[in-house]
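Notes from hallway chat w/ T.B., transcribed later so I don't forget. T.B. wanted the structure written out for a chain they're using in a teaching module, and asked if we could keep both sequence and structure tokens in one place. Agreed to drop them here.
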Amino acid sequence: MLETIGSALASLAILALIVGLINPNWVLFGNINKTRGKVIAVYGFVFIFAFVVQIIGSPNSFETGKKAFLEKNYDYAITKLENIESTDKNYTEAQALLKQARTLLWPSKFEKAKIAASNQQYSQVISLLSDYPADEKGFAEASKLLKYAEEKLEEEQHQKQVDQEAQKIESEHIEEIKSAEKERKKALVDYPECDSSEATENIISVLADSPLGRAHGYSLIKLNNVTEVSAVLTERKCEGYALLNDGNKYPISFRFYRDGDDILVQAQILGLE
């Protein structure tokens, strides 16, 4: 209680000092000489008083150690109880608690380690049991659990490394695919799309210049249901139906391909005589 009061009073004293240095009239009252020096003197004294109250109200090593012991925090309890001087009125009780704490310390750690292992917290198991004394009861079981935790942690770390490598390889593969696709699309820019007006114009020209076109006067009216069959760096293949000026619709396959710096077209109309 006193420790809390002292802490609150110290905080108020610091705040008053800061405010008073800005304007002493805000924190000094009564008929006194309101100066910044007076602010420092008054609230400096309040701060020192609050500090003393905190020290008086702070629990001593015995109280702190006993509290830690009751909370089964044996490591901390041992640390605090070992500091009790032989002249202290609580020395005898402190020694008794210290003996119990040392007795219960490692069994307590072992129980915590078992819980940690069941939750797959293998690093915590290793932290709890790595310095388990060889002459302490339960050493064999603790060593077995420690070895198990070390093996499982090693497996986890190995699996993590494998997963990271796999992820790296997958990322690199994806980047290679993206890069290849980008290059493919870049190369295909020169080839007309299968269902484009440019493709239709090319087929019209090819048909008009073909022997059948010249001999029978065939000409293309339009292309229907045109789809892309494949598209690679060297060519783009398409198929669909060609409606000719004879009123009939014929299956057609055509491709655009590169010949040096030129893009050429080749077409075949099935059933046309």
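Follow-up for T.B.: The mean pLDDT is 86. Might be a good example for the class.
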